[in-house]
Amino acid sequence: MTVEVGMLAPDFTLAANNGETIKLSDFRGKNVVLYFYPKDMTPGCTTEACDFRDQYENFAALDAVILGISPDPVDRHVKFVEKYGLPFLLLADPDNQVAEAYGVWQLKKNFGKEYMGIERSTFVIDKQGNITKEWRKVKVKGHVEEALEYIRDNQ
After folding, report:
1. What does the CA dihedral 137, 149, 27, 55 come to, rounded to 10 degrees?
2. Active-site pick, 3, 32, 45, 124
3. How does pLDDT run across 68-104, given as a tens digit for each residue?
4. Region 57-72: what's the mean pLDDT?
5. Which of 18, 48, 141, 153 has the most crowded Cβ, counting Cβ within 10 A?
6. Which CATH number applies to 13-153: 3.40.30.10, 3.40.50.920, 1.10.1760.20, 3.40.50.2300?
7. Are 113 and 122 contacting, i.e. CB atoms less than 8 angstroms apart?
8. Within 10 A of 17 (CB to CB), how many other CB atoms are there?
9. Domain residues of the chain, as ranges?
C-alpha cells in the first residue's frame, strides 16, 4: 500500500521518545510534518534532524508539528534527542508497519547489495488529517527549508 496527496493520512499509534504513546489523530487541528528516516545517529539522518531542530520555531509559528519516524527503538531515539537537543518527537516503528502504510519501506541498493529499508520521505498533513504534500527519495540538503516554505505558502 502507498499513500498519495489528497488521501486521509493513515492513522497510527507509536511509542515516542518522551515515554508516551502517540496517535497521529491526536494532532488534528494542526499541520503535521511527518518525516521518515532510516537510522538515528547516522550522518544524513543527523543532518536532517538538526535542520528540523534549527527550523522548529518557524514550523511552530505556522501551527505545524514535526514528527520523525524510524525503525529504531525508543531508547535509541532518547539518546538521539538528548545528544542533538531535538525539540520534537521521534517515534519508534520497529516492525515497519507505519512505514509500509506510507509506502516508504522499500527495496534499496547499496554497494551492489539489496535490502529492505526506509526511503527517506516527508509528508505534510493538514489540519483535517489529509496529505497535502509528499517528498520521496529526499535529499537532505535544503529539504527542511523547502518543507517550511510549502507550509508557509499553503496555510
Report:
1. 90
2. 45
3. 999 999 999 999 999 999 999 999 999 999 999 999 9
4. 97
5. 48
6. 3.40.30.10
7. no
8. 24
9. 13-153
